[in-house]
Amino acid sequence: MTKQFYSVRTGKNKNAAGFPLEVIRDLFSRLYGDLRAEGYFNEYLGWYCVDQGDVPGLILSPDLDMMLKLRKDGLWPIGEKCAFYTEDDLLDVIEYLFSVVSKPIDGTYHSFSDCGMHWETFNKHEGEKVFREKINDLLDLYQEKFALSEAGDVLHKPDRGFEAIFAADTPTNDKNIRGRIDVAITQYRRHGASLDDRRQAVRDLADVLEYLRPQVKTVLDNKDENDLFNIANNFGIRHHNDKQKTGYDAALWLSWMFYFFLSTIHVVLRKINRDSEKRESSQE
Question: What residues have CB less than 8 Å from 63, skipping those under 6 apart?
Fold first, then answer.
């Protein structure tokens, strides 16, 4: 965790809650410029040589590639266009750059006119790691709370007090369960997730609970178990009929249901593991 200095720590700094978008855009442009100069985008986006001019990378036309992948025009070149980015533009470009970053490893130095290194060997994984660390340091300064995941998705940071549940490893070896939970978490937290996206994420967690229902019975009494599945089945999450309860603040309730279901799944899985360990221990 980045150290907080006196005025931020004591709440006396006017920017303690973070900088607005216009400041973050400027800092991002400078960060991108530094990484560009260090060769982190040479492999994919090309570079400039005093002898050869613009040398293409693996992506021959970055402006076209960005337009096709992001479905937006006018984002390239980044240094010129960044000052006009909306928040969505900025976060889209961050995700795009994660997909085309790689760390320069080896090359030759072009001494004429102090042209610089011509990188020839790159490491994609190491580049992603460096880029993610620097971008997350930048996003920590933003008034809005986002983070770049290891998969290269910009996600909303968890609500305060729920950080641990996302950091915790899912306590199961069942790939089906792990996969559904991981997809649900990413879909719920992804930047730009709609209410329908979040509703689907809650539905996926409810399906995991249904799959675990025999084990849920060992953790909750009958009333609590019925209440749990009543929430999933009768609040416009899993079914669509005239008996559904839909007259509620969707954003607020979806948030509550998501964290409630996810926490319950973790408790049930840990109870399953503990009971399994006890059985194995008694058989020895």
Answer: 75, 76, 77
pLDDT tens-digit series, residues 79-125: 999 999 999 999 999 999 999 999 999 999 988 888 888 999 999 99
Residues 260, 267: Cα–Cα separation, whole Å: 11
Q: Which residues contact 48 (CB under 8 A, 6 or more apart)?
A: 54, 55
The DSSP element (H or E) to which 47 belongs, if any, is: strand 47-49
Per-residue pLDDT reduced to its tens digit, 222-262:
666 666 667 666 655 554 444 445 555 677 888 888 988 89
Which of 28, 4, 2 is CA-nearest to residue 16? 4
Q: CB neighbours of 25 closer than 8 A, spacing ≥ 6?
A: 82, 83, 85, 90
- Give the position of tokens 């001494």: 111
Q: What is the pTM of this model?
A: 0.79
217 Cα distance to chain centroid: 34
Residue 119's region, left for phi above 0, alpha for psi from -120 to 50, else beta, is beta
CB burial of 205-222 (b: ≥16 within 10 Å; e: otherwise) equals bbebbeebeeebeebeee
